Amino acid sequence: MVDRVRRQLLAAAAAAAIAPIVRAQARELVDDAGRRVTVPAQSARIFAAGPPASVLVFAVAPDKLLGWTTPFRDAERPFVDAKYADLPTLGRLTGRGNTANVEVVLAAKPDLVVDYGSVTATFASLADRVQSQTGIPYVLLDGSFDRMAASIRVVGRLAGLDATAEGVARYAEETVAEVTRRVAAIPATSRPRVYYARGPNGLETGLAGSINVESLERVGAVNVAAELGRGGLVRVSLEQVLGWDPQVIVTTDPNFELAVRSDPLWQAVSAVRKGRVHLAPAVPFGWIDFPPSLNRLIGLRWLARVLYPDAFPEDLRSAVREFYGRFYHRVPDEAQLEMLLASARARS
């Protein structure tokens, strides 16, 4: 009872604090879940509800992002300017292990909460609940590749950075269009059967339609786990992977990538025997997911390169420089580029 009263009082205080701004400059926006949200004309303090939203807001409006869901690890920090890497850790409102609560949100004093990713009824309900408890507008944006550019433009409009967002959105559109066009020319018989291995034992993967494997689908790869149906992430057995016998394995976990090459049980998989296990770069954010956000754009180019080296023979260095400079606001040096791109070469 005490906690409920406390939350109500905090919400009332927050609503009172932003009320003059809302009255003077409010406008209505329909988000990607179909929710009508009254938002400030120009947001100055944005709370990212989850990791995908953090990357989205950071790319478009880094100086308006209030904090991160988790702190940067030592290997990630060099790829982001210290003034951004040192932003506070605020936790997450959505996804696995959500750690932020109403008090955390209110203490950060945002004028807007942004979530980015799935726009199902579950996430819409969460958005409504947080908005009701805090009095702070909460916008839910679609994180799929098809809606990526539109979501970027919405954040730019909300932050009053339309010109910046337009450049980022055009990059996203052009990247997806170019990769899609070039992959379309590759015969179906040349498109590999791929298993996406998550976790230290490689036995978590994404079903058909999962945002976590959307990059694989975009480059025309055959997701071997798609036969299990549509949905999100799922645990599978090694026996299932052996039955699928993928030609290529893409992983995000360095421990699995290292162990799988010497594990006798995995040697029966064609991808392992032929050295076609690829570790996706993961700093400062993963190139496949972790999180499934704008960081997947450079991963799209990387995947095309490792899956179709003849059709995508170009060096990725210039693409990585441009992407990191535009989206992470810091261009990697030569040593960092070498480290990032080492896994684009087939591992034997």
Relevant terms:
348 residues; alpha/beta; Rossmann fold; four-stranded parallel beta sheet; three-stranded parallel beta sheet; 43% helix; 12% strand
Explain this structure to me?
There is one protein chain. By secondary structure, this protein is α/β, with parallel strands linked by helices. It folds into two domains: 2-172, Rossmann fold (3-Layer(aba) Sandwich); 187-344, Nitrogenase molybdenum iron protein domain (Rossmann fold, 3-Layer(aba) Sandwich), CATH 3.40.50.1980. It contains 14 helices and eleven strands. The strands form four sheets. The protein has a four-stranded parallel sheet. Strand 4, helix 5 and strand 5 (138-142) form a beta-alpha-beta unit. The longest helix has 24 residues, at 2-25. Mean pLDDT is 92; it is low at 18-24.
